[in-house]
Amino acid sequence: MIPNKIIALIKAQFSSQLRINMASGLLMTILNAPLMIVAYPVYLHFLGYEQYGVWLVLSTILTFAQLGNLGIGPAITKLVAEDFAQHNSRGIQQYVTAALAMLSISGILVLSVILLLKVRIIAWFNLNDDYSATALDLLTYIGILSVYVFIVQVFEAILTGLGRMDLTHYIHSLSRGINIAVAAFLLMAGFGIKSLLIGSVLSYVFIHAASFVCIRRILHVSLLNFTHPDISRFKRLLHFGGAVFGGSLISLFLSPFNKLILSRYAGISTVPVYEIAYHGSMQVRALMEVGLRALMPEISRIGAVVTPQAKNKIQALNRRAVKFIVFFGTPLYAVLILLAGLLLKLWLKHEFTEAMTGVFRIMSAGTYLSLLCVPAYYTLMGLGKVHFCLASQVIQGAANVLMICTILFFSGTVSVHSVVTVVMVSMGLTTVYVILQNRRVMQQFLNHPVNPDSFSNNRTPMDSFPCIED
């Protein structure tokens, strides 16, 4: 029998939806790791490095196409959450209607561009004739899928905005399981690379259906309202989504850009090596980072009023987060880097290649460097200094592109080792920038005189002390 005190403690920890959402994020990160561990060996076994590289090329095109979502997903989450808190069902309906209308138009444009330029798009990746033909055959379906993903993301964002991020996490993990299971079954049946496309389609259909059912159980109203379109809601969606769109645009100059360069100059077989190293090390980073995401809303709440107590609490949170990374993240990454060869052999078995060990070690070092700036990053976001966070993405993307282009200029080619080294350096530069800016902002925050009237006014923390540029 479980003691009553333990039961009471567990209930207390999960008494709020916020704690449940946070716990579900950590749980799903842990559960998703085995899915990744299973997926890569299966795909490589049935497809090999080159055919799987073709699929990753198509996935990269899907990533580029996601620019057409205009940052609407996160905007829907924020704005739906505001109206839901005010029990404004009609407002939620109008936001959903506006989002679907805008994404339908942008989706048609994206699909048109893909269909008109598909031969040129595939030519960018410098595939041989057989693989080019395969990619061209599937690219039309990838374009249609990208438009459908826009719609699915809206329903995910609505559910998150209704405060049920835990359900979003569960649905996502189940969809990944469906994707891998369907793809593996079809690969064994001999469907080849089309298996991955079919698995992806069915996983998004599941997300769409499950999200819709959960939303209807919470709202009990129709999601669409075409009777009185509100132009102001269109504007708010575009205004908030614009900043997210900027970040998405910059992110294309990281992993998607690197896959394009590797496919074109190092060969399609190097793309899976890069993909496995990147996502494998990022999965380890996510185990450490997912719990630290709670820093941002907590610092936002504490810093809403500039008092000595708020200053001390924010400093204490930063110190605890850094200690957490140093004491837990450092040993974890040390073991990962030292035993990379053995772990990869056990994981990939016959699909393992010797070149992967060095690539994985370099990428792991880069993701560890990026992990070091996570407390500073979320502190800047919590204090409203989002422009520094956006600048950090610009620095990483610009450094990545500049260094790779420099290598191409002097040598005329790149290797997967040189690309991951560039990623590591760009992550390190970003970490230094974020930590330095956080120190400056915190120093300014600490030196700001306490306003005794700040308890009674409605100013945000950023209204009460100037930006660095000022």
How is this structure best described in words?
- The chain is an all-alpha fold and 470 residues long.
- It has 2 domains: 20-251, no CATH class; 253-470, no CATH class.
- It is built from 17 helices and no strands.
- The chain has helices spanning 4-13, 17-65, 72-85, 89-124, 129-161, 165-188, 194-219, 231-251, 255-265, 270-289, 295-302, 308-338, 340-348, 355-372, 374-382, 386-411, 416-447.
- Helix 2 (17-65) packs across helix 6 (165-188), helix 5 (129-161) packs antiparallel against helix 6 (165-188) and helix 9 (255-265) packs antiparallel against helix 10.
- The longest helix has 49 residues, at 17-65.
- The model is unreliable at 5-15 and 450-470 (pLDDT under 50).
Could you outline the blueprint of secondary structure elements for this entry?
Elements: H1 4-13, H2 17-65, H3 72-85, H4 89-124, H5 129-161, H6 165-188, H7 194-219, H8 231-251, H9 255-265, H10 270-289, H11 295-302, H12 308-338, H13 340-348, H14 355-372, H15 374-382, H16 386-411, H17 416-447
Provide tags for this entry.
470 residues; mainly alpha; 2 domains; 17 helices; 0% strand; globular
Brief summary of the model shown:
The chain is mainly α and 470 residues long.
